[in-house]
Amino acid sequence: MVAEQLAAQGIRCSRVLAAMRDVPRHLFVPRAYVAQAYDDTALGIDCGQTISQPYIVARMTEALELPTGEPLVLEVGTGSGYQAAVLAALGARVVTVEWIEALARRAEAALAAVGLLDRVRIIVGDGTAGIDGAGPYDGILVTAGGAQIPRALLPRLCPGAALVLPLGEPGHQELVRLHRGEQGWVEENLGGCRFVPLRGPCGWEEE
Ligand code: SAH
Question: Which domains does the chain have, with CATH numbers?
């Protein structure tokens, strides 16, 4: 997966490639999909949600350009816990927020099984609202699609840090990187992607 799919598609950061190599993705997918766990594709998890495609996980992680040491990262949308595990394997401490309690509990069990739970704090709720008293963060990832930047998260980013999130329509989004530079915010488009909907006020209208 790492050599043929990630490096071949342009993931260059050796720390990200090593973290992707270290985390056993098959422990984060439902039993029925274990045989496909290392395919470069998103897969269904419970509650109608998905575990992201490995390339997108690697791309989002790389785009954070995290400092070495023990950076603190916020993830909105825990899902399976796989993205949080990759961040933790890279050395980060992770605060991850999940809207659906059952998924948060399952992610907790998977993170414990791979020995990374001590680096990850899982919170049930709306991650776009900002977490009281936590941060500032060395990077923020939103792993569900919406139409708006969750503004409450921006002041929680350290200077020089980035927020990476999918923005667009329900069927198609662009992966956007917002970097908190010395001269202000710099926005960069990292390419097309497709995520499940972000819930709450920053998401698309509820059906
Ligand atoms: N990062 C995940 C994939 C996430 S799928 C992984 O590695 O597996 C998107 C997840 O975001 C879903 O589980 C969904 O329930 C959750 N979600 C959607 N809106 C949210 C919100 N406002 N706050 C927290 N979680 C949210």
Answer: 2-193 (3.40.50.150)
